[in-house]
Write a structure and sequence with these properties.
With 223 residues, this protein is α+β, with helices and mostly antiparallel strands. Helix content is 38%, strand content 27%. A 7-stranded antiparallel beta sheet has the order 2-1-5-6-7-4-3.
């Protein structure tokens, strides 16, 4: 059962945390912005729509933590209502640690890292596994995604917050890099063809020159 919090940030700022903040001089700053967001707004919705990877944390009844990665195509995390997220839980290694933890401790946490934009989102809440709702599972399953859904997971948000980009390395998805390189190569080929036309060379012959040079370079590297 969800506990009643004086402030939404109390989901993370426990009395022990507040005591340390007070001792180290940061309590006043955090006390002034104690209300974290508790509903899904346009900001969070846009971040969820772009997310293809999250970390999902649970803990056993004894408090033993466990973090598992969940991924899929962009937007695989669905908005069920203004307080609830859901996603299809695909068949995996069949350890069922997350499900076992949730069966005895509903507390859960989602961490979303966007390396390209150097931003992160933290969501506290409670989660549950839904095993017997085919309609829900179908609604949560990304269209055309080749994975076998086993069950659904619903996550009800207690509070969420964002962090500054400090110390986040900038990284890009391989697919995004490939698309950017493809666009660059197409533009290079277009410019080379235009240059060849200005010089009076046959366009077809000019277009094969970079390819031949590339093949020669590859052969030299492998030789």
């Amino acid at each position: 059962m969800s506990e009643t919090l004086a402030y939404s940030s109390d989901v993370a700022f426990t009395p022990a945390v507040k005591a340390i903040q007070a001792r180290k001089g940061s309590r006043h700053a955090y006390a002034e912005r104690a209300e974290w967001r508790t509903e899904i707004d346009e900001d969070l919705a846009s971040r969820l729509a772009e997310a293809s990877s999250i970390y999902f944390a649970t803990a056993s009844a004894a408090g033993q933590p466990y973090i598992q990665h969940r991924g899929g195509p962009q937007g695989f995390i669905k908005i069920v209502d203004r307080n609830t997220l859901g996603f299809a839980d695909y068949s995996g290694n069949r350890q069922y640690i997350t499900q076992g933890n949730l069966s005895e401790n509903p507390k859960a946490y989602i961490f979303i890292m966007d390396y390209a934009r150097r931003r992160r989102v933290k969501l506290w809440g409670e989660a549950k596994v839904i095993e017997d709702d085919p309609a829900l599972l179908q609604a949560l399953m990304p269209k055309g995604y080749r994975a076998r859904p086993e069950q659904a997971i619903l996550f009800r948000i207690a509070a969420w917050d964002t962090n500054c980009p400090q110390h986040i390395p900038q990284k890009f998805d391989a697919a995004d890099v490939a698309a950017a390189l493809g666009a660059r190569d197409a533009r290079i080929a277009e410019l080379e063809a235009e240059l060849a036309a200005l010089k009076g060379k046959p366009v077809a012959a000019a277009a094969t020159e970079p390819q031949a040079a590339s093949q020669s370079l590859d052969q030299a590297k492998s030789g």
